[in-house]
C-alpha cells in the first residue's frame, strides 16, 4: 500500500530584522510556522540567520531570546562565513560602478598576455587588467581593495595611536560580512577591507573607535567621551554605517 505524506505547511515570511550582538550587527529573517511549538534558529551561509517562530509568538520577545543565544549565533555565523564558497567574479563587468573612499568609480576591464592581474586608479576609473591565470574580476578587485586597506589603515592607525598615546600589537585586514573593526584584549586591531568603499571620515571613525578600545575595553561613558574628543561627528559617521550596512556587506557582489 502506498502511503502519502501530507505536505509540510508553508512558512510565512514576516520580514527582515537586525540586532546587535557583542558589537556585531546581525541581520536575520523571521518566519512563522503553523506547526512549530517553540522558536527555532537556523543558520545557512546563503541566507544567514533565520528565526522560525510559532503562529502566535509575540515578536516583541525576540530581542531578549536572541541576546540569550548570542554565543551560538556568532559562532555559527562565523562557521557559515568560512564555509561560504568564494565569489566567481562573474557578476561584475566593464562599465559597472564600484565605490572607493565614498565615490563611484567606473570599471574598465581588459585582458593581458601575462599571468598576473593588475589594478590601477586613473581619475574616476578603476583600470583592471586580467591575466591568463586570473581567478576573476571580483577576486582581482578584492585583492586590490585589501592592499589599499592595509596601506591606508596602517597609516591612520599609526598616526591615531600616537595621538592617543597607546600602542597596538598588530593590524590585520579581514572580510567579515557585518563587522567593520575589532580590538582584542591583547591589543590586536582588525579592520574590514569593505570599509574602503566608505567615505574617509567614516573610515577614520572606525579606526578611532577601535583605538579607543586600547584605553577603554568597553562602551562606557568614558569610552564615548574619548571617541568624541578625537571624532566630534562620530554619531553622524556611525549613522552612515548603519544606513549603508547592507550595501557595504555585499562587497563586490552586484
Summarize this structure briefly:
This protein has seven helices and eleven strands.
Describe the structure.
By secondary structure, the protein is an alpha/beta fold. It folds into two domains: 12-83, no CATH class; 97-249, 2-Layer Sandwich (Zincin-like). Helix content is 34%, strand content 27%. The strands form three sheets. It has a four-stranded mixed beta sheet with strand order 1-2-4-3, covered by helices on one side. It has a four-stranded mixed beta sheet with strand order 5-6-8-7, covered by helices on one side. A hairpin with a 2-residue loop joins strand 5 (97-100) and strand 6 (103-111). 22% of the residues are buried. Residues 1-7 and 85-90 have low confidence and may be disordered.
Radius of gyration: 22 Å
User: What is the tally of beta strands?
Assistant: 11
Strand order of the biggest β-sheet: 1-2-4-3
Low-confidence stretches: 1-7, 85-90
Q: How many angstroms does the end-to-end distance come to?
A: 51 Å
CATH architecture of the largest domain: 2-Layer Sandwich
CATH topology of the largest domain: Zincin-like
**Class of the largest domain, according to the CATH hierarchy?**
Alpha Beta
How many domains, as an integer?
Answer: 2
Number of helices: 7
Structural class: alpha/beta
Shape descriptor reads globular
> What proportion of the residues is helical, as a percent range?
25-40%
The biggest beta sheet is recorded as: 4 strands, mixed
Task: Calculate the mean pLDDT score and round it.
Answer: 85
